[in-house]
């Protein structure tokens, strides 16, 4: 017997919408192509993770020009969130309105911040976010305070916070989905980019998924890789989901389909699913796969050879002084936040010719930062399929903002007493918050989805993951995806599951 609803993917979008459907009486099947991430020694070994690539997928994508590369996307129960930095931050209120950047206009959302605010609060409770209001001047209105205090600064980071305040900046505590005591019990490492095999990091598997699976009507099937969707003869609704598991082809016929495979793979599934008229499913607008965005970002190491940084996890601070402007009334730059503590082995993975002892010294005397700027939507920045291949044509935009943010932060860190400041941008192998490929909007001519993430073309299809985001903003997208997932779940309960 087919379930009422099939959810494709158990990442932030899929697991959260499943939690929002718990108790509705609907039968729900979650299809996850990966398996549960095993608890092994590799999980806390920086060499295994960053040098040997133990967890990287065994697949290759291609650039539009033909060059293959190994993507940094992960296939496990919980999706990419198993490796995320657990930063659960709201888009700023201004991010929902049109905003001019160096690279062009970031378009307005089809609704404002106030529409999503209650769902942000519910998502923060679901992911047990640690934080503190009142420190960040760009913080939007919260109707519900954080339930837990922020993860504490380690001594070197408390010093960095004081140094930034000393030059009249506004460092603020990162809102984090981390139970720090539980995390450190399993190993004295950072959590940023390290896989979560316990309960220390509140990811899709440890946060919303248990809420969903507590309902006996909701079940999870792993190792289930979805190939394509099938439409009814008239093309108005999705009739079936085709997938394979253990080499066996399977077909399931739900009443509703929620596609939450991630911004890349959701677009790929749609592009591989034929629709009448020679187009693919949900693609009357010809926007499926287009408007791909991936934050423009860089790592920055502020180094003082006279002072050690003995932090274990480090990632507790952010700086939004340049989020809404360049500090001089000009265009926005972006967000600055700490990375998880880098060690010499991680540096060796990127700087192979340098001697290990020099990298160890550098890492032990550095405070490691992550600079993030908005990538703007462009229809020619896109995901495509070519037979069995996934082809990515990423047209980066607004790089001037990253250049300026790098320059201003280098000056600030030198003013704080760090004589050596090094930076390096991230490339396409790092999935820095992929989004925008199946965007929502108010016009079916320019967007595949409506404001509740329902496909304009097919009444029983929803897409709920980073693909729906109209803009990338310049903050981590996980909480925004979760908030919208809860909003969509509530909409489905009210409109599709009424008795």
From TrEMBL:
Requisite cofactors: FAD
**What sequence ranges are listed for the domain Glucose-methanol-choline oxidoreductase C-terminal?**
430-485
Question: Glucose-methanol-choline oxidoreductase N-terminal domain location, by residue?
Answer: 201-295
Q: List the Pfam families.
A: GMC_oxred_C, GMC_oxred_N, NAD_binding_8
- Tell me yes or no: is Amino-acid biosynthesis among this UniProt entry's keywords: no
Task: Tell me the keywords, alphabetical order.
Answer: FAD, Flavoprotein, Oxidoreductase
This protein's superkingdom? Answer: Bacteria
Q: Does the keyword Magnesium apply?
A: no
- Give the Gene Ontology MF terms in alphabetical order: flavin adenine dinucleotide binding; oxidoreductase activity, acting on CH-OH group of donors
Name the family: Belongs to the GMC oxidoreductase family.
Protein name (database record): GMC family oxidoreductase
Query: Which species is the source of this protein?
Result: Mesorhizobium hungaricum
Lineage of this protein's species? Bacteria, Pseudomonadati, Pseudomonadota, Alphaproteobacteria, Hyphomicrobiales
